[in-house]
Amino acid sequence: MTSEKKKLPYIAPFEVVIHNKPSDCWVSVLGKVFDVTPLIKRYEGQASVKPLIAMAGKDLSHWFDAKTGSIRYCVHPVTGVLTPYCPNGPFPDILTQVPDTEWRELNGPPWWERTQYQVGILTKRVRPLRIINMLTFHEVQINVCAEDTFKRIQERYSIFNKDPDSYAWKYFDKYIDLDKTMDENGIVDDRDKFAEFGMPQNYYVPVVFLYYNDDLKCTEMEEEEEFTYYKDLADDKVSGLGHGIPYRISGPMFETISPCICEDDDEEYFEPCVIETNLEKIEEREESPDL
Fold first, then answer.
1. pLDDT by residue (tens digit) across 106-156?
2. Are the C-beta atoms of 38 and 22 separated by less than 8 Å?
3. What's the CA gap between 65 and 17, in Å, rounded?
4. What burial class does residue 85 get, using C-beta atoms within 10 Å of its C-beta: 0-12 exposed, 13-18 middle, 19+ buried?
C-alpha cells in the first residue's frame, strides 16, 4: 500500500527571500522552491557552494532551460566545448566546465530534480486580502498566493488570530468554502482592469468578514434581510460618519456598529453600539462621547 503523496504548499517570492543565509537557504527554480541548506552543509568549505550562498533567497531560473528543466549549456570561450552555464561559477551536482581530475559521476539525479529538497511551489501571482473580525473589529490586510485555499489562508491569518476555525468566513452574504481558492469562491482579481483604466491596483482590495460562531449578533443578521453590499464607511460620501468600519445597505437605511466608551465602577471599557443612518437624519440609539 503506497502512502499518499504530501501536497506541497504554494509559496510567494516574499517568503523565499527571507531564507537568505547559509544556515537557512532557499532558492526557486522554474516554479519550484528548494531548501538547499542541507546541500550547503554537505559541501561546506568548498567553492562550489559559493554561487548558491550568493543567490540565497533568489530565483535561479535563468540558470536552467525551461524546456528540459535541466541546466543550460553554452560553448566555453576557451575550450570550445559545450559546458554547463554557470554565470556565478560551478555549483553542486553539475559537470565541470573544464577537464578536472576531481570529476566524479553523479550518484543519482541532481539536487534540482530531487523531491527531498523541494519545499513548495512558487505562486504565479500574489493577491492582497483584507480580513475583518466582526467580533473585535480588528482588520488586517495580508498577501496570499492566488492558488491558496482558504484553509491555507487561515494558516497565514493565524498569526493575528490563534483560533480562526471558530469563525464563520463570509464574502458579502455567502459563506466561503474553505477547500476552495479565492477565485473558486467568486472573489475575482480586478487589478488588471484597474491598471487598464489607469487606476491604482490597490483601488479596491477584496474583504472577508469573520463572524464568531457563538456570536448572537451573527444569528440576528442572518435572520434579517440579506446583505446586498459591503463597503468601508470611511469612504462613504453620503453619510459622512467616517467610522472606518464595514456596514451594509438595506434600502435607504445604513446600519453600522461603532465602538463606544462606557463607564462601570469608575472603569472605562469598549462596548459596541448601533448607529442607524438615514439619508436625511442620523439617530443614535446609544449616546457615545467623542473618542
1. 667 888 988 999 999 999 999 999 999 999 999 999 999 999 999 999 999
2. no
3. 22
4. middle
